[in-house]
Amino acid sequence: EEMLEIWEELSLGYTESRGHPKLIQEISGLYPGIPSSGPESPIVLAPQEGVFLAMQSLLQPGDRVVAMWPGYQSLYEVARSMGCKVDFWKPRLDEAGVPAHFDVKDLGELLLSGPAAKLVVVNFPHNPTGFLPSAAEFHEVVELCRSQGAYLFSDEMYRGLELSPNDRLPTAVEMYDRAVSLGGVSKGLSLPGLRIGWLASASRPFLDRVAELKDYTTICSAAPSEILAIIALRGRDAIFDMNRQIILGNLNALHSFFDDYPDRFAWQPPRAGTVCFPRLLGPAAEAGAAEYCERLREKHGILLLPSGTYEYDEPCFRLGYGRRNLKENLSLWRTALDAGSS
Asked: Are residues 300 and 173 located together in one domain of the fold?
């Protein structure tokens, strides 16, 4: 009733620059120890805007940044466009050549191989591989950042989509006073059209700077989006459970699909999120992921994202499995494979 009354009285004027107070209150409940009001509370913004403003607030030309790769492009390209030196924490390949695991030892060696990093950028659950570290491994990542005095930017947009809730990691801001957590309603709550995300941090200077810079980007969020986001966050457990059932069912279908074509594809089942990063085998691999994905799109209307989109050379493709119509699309793909046209 409360939200219905607010919705019916809603004005389409400017909103609070840092976010609707009730929305901030819901967001802060996701982060133990983070205030629900005042200058140390989370800042509401569009998720992509959060990446951009965080980098602008933390970095200067010449700073060293270490980021996971392949990954969401802005997580490293914004820093690179600012004149920062960006080094990549790359996944190890399994025996079939599938990007399977980000080893924390590799991150440690990378951090020691050059000047002290100003910022480490991680994304768990990871896009595009579906990788999720253990809690112990994530703790090691945080301690590596602490040892260098580096900021940690943690893209947590897929948080809540773990295959088992027991695998859910703590947020970065719970673990480290120089961490920044990016969250939003786009992935786990299935509401990308609202364009509502947020930044949480224990660093007051960082939040102050983001708030200043936001006056030069969106200024504020859309009033209807904020109210709908409040409603979604209050019902988040039910939405997470619904989405988990969808992705678990779809993963069973993917297991059957890839088991039927072991000479065409290799894959590493994801631990979380709604994307995975299989590898092409045989002649398709030799032709390249871009050609394969384009042919599949043109002839059969099936959309996959080739690895070249990430500037990643291995013949892989990103496959999304978060939609209810996945099984229908797998059936079309099977028909194409069996007919030899894919």
From this structure: no
DSSP state at residue 58 = H
Q: Is 16 left (phi over 0), alpha (psi -120 to 50) or beta?
A: beta
Q: Torsions phi, psi of 89, nearest 5?
A: -90, 110
Number of domains in the chain: 2
CB 129: neighbour CB atoms within 10 A? 26
**DSSP assignment letter at 280:** E
29: nearest Cα among 177, 171, 142, 151: 171
What's the predicted TM-score (pTM) here? 0.97
Q: What is the pLDDT of residues 159-217, one digit of tens each?
A: 999 999 999 999 999 999 999 999 999 999 999 999 999 999 999 999 999 999 999 99
Is 183 strand, coil or helix?
A: strand
Q: What is the domain extent for residue 254?
A: 238-338
Strands (E), the chain: 43-45, 64-68, 85-89, 92-93, 99-101, 119-123, 151-155, 179-184, 197-201, 265-266, 275-276, 279-280, 305-306, 317-320
Neighbours of 83 (CB within 10 A): 11
